[in-house]
Recover the amino acids of this structure.
C-alpha cells in the first residue's frame, strides 16, 4: 500500500483525512484507485485531457514526478505520494 | 533579518510593475537568511477553471467568482506548478535552499491577506515532509506605483511577523 497525502482543498472528498492508503504500482494507478475510493478527486487532479492540472504538483517521496517518469513513475511499498497545490495567495 | 541583494529587490519591484494591475509571483533561493536568486513564476490564475478556483478559501473564492478571469489576477495569484518545480530543481542543483515566495499587491499595502495566511499554513502542513526550510513570505506593494514597498514575513500559526530586510549592495 502507498501512503497518499491529500491537500486541504481535497480533504472533503476523503472524509477530512490528510493521508490515505491506496494500492497501486504506478502514480497513474494510485490516482485511478484514489478516484474510485474517493469519487471526485481524480477530476480535481487531472484536467480534461488527463494531464495533471497546471497548479498541482505530485511528488513521490521528495521528487516531483515531472522529473521521474511522470504518471508512469513506478511505486514500491513504503513510497509516499503527495498531491500538492503550488503556492497561491491574494490581496 | 533577511538579507537581499539590491538587484533582486529591483527585479521584484520591476516584476510587480510590469504585471500591474495583475499580481506577480515568484520564488526566492538562498542560504539561511540571505537571498541569492529570484525566479519569476507565471501567475496562471486567469487560466484556472471555475472548479480549480475552489482551492481558495471561502471569502476569496466568492470575490474571484464575481470577477472575469482576467480581472481575477488583480486580486490573487496562483503559481504555475511546472515552473515552480523547475525552479526548485534548479535551486537544488546549485545546492541552495528554497528560502521564500514573493508576490505583489497592486491595490493594497505589503501585508499578508487572509488568503496569503491560509495558503502559507497549507504549505506549512506538508513543508517538513518535503524537507524544505521555513520560508519567508515577501510582498511587494505597488499600490502607490511611485513609492513601491517590499516587506518580508514569517507566518507561524496563522500569525504574520515582519522580518526586517537588509539590502545588500
Amino acid at each position: 500500500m502507498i501512503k497518499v497525502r491529500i491537500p486541504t482543498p481535497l480533504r472533503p472528498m476523503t472524509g477530512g483525512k490528510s493521508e490515505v492508503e491506496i494500492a497501486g504500482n504506478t502514480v497513474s494507478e494510485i490516482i485511478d484507485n484514489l478516484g474510485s475510493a474517493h469519487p471526485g478527486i481524480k477530476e480535481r487532479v487531472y484536467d480534461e485531457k488527463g494531464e495533471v492540472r497546471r497548479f498541482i504538483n505530485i511528488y513521490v517521496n521528495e521528487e516531483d514526478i515531472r522529473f521521474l517518469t511522470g504518471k508512469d513513475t513506478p511505486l514500491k511499498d513504503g513510497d509516499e505520494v503527495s498531491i500538492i497545490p503550488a503556492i497561491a495567495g491574494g490581496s | 533579518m533577511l538579507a537581499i541583494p539590491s538587484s533582486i529587490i529591483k527585479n521584484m519591484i520591476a516584476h510587480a510593475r510590469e504585471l500591474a494591475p495583475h499580481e506577480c509571483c515568484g520564488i526566492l533561493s538562498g542560504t539561511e537568511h540571505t537571498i541569492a536568486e529570484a525566479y519569476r513564476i507565471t501567475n496562471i490564475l486567469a487560466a484556472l477553471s471555475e472548479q480549480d478556483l475552489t482551492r481558495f478559501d471561502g471569502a476569496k473564492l466568492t470575490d474571484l467568482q464575481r470577477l472575469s478571469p482576467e480581472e481575477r489576477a488583480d486580486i490573487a495569484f496562483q503559481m504555475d506548478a511546472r515552473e515552480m518545480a523547475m525552479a526548485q530543481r534548479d535551486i537544488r542543483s546549485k545546492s541552495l535552499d528554497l528560502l521564500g515566495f514573493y508576490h505583489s499587491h497592486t491595490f493594497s499595502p505589503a501585508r499578508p491577506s487572509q488568503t496569503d495566511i491560509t495558503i502559507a499554513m497549507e504549505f506549512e502542513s506538508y513543508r517538513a515532509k518535503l524537507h524544505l526550510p521555513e520560508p519567508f513570505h515577501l510582498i511587494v506593494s505597488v499600490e502607490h506605483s511611485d513609492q513601491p514597498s517590499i516587506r518580508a514575513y514569517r507566518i507561524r500559526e496563522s500569525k504574520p511577523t515582519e522580518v526586517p530586510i537588509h539590502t545588500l549592495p
About this structure: The longest strand of chain A covers residues 80-85. The interface with chain B takes residues 5, 7-9, 18, 43-44, 52-57, 59, 62, 64, 66-67, 80, 82, 84-91 of chain A (CB under 8 Å). The two ends of chain A are 41 Å apart (CA to CA). DSSP finds two helices and six strands in chain A.
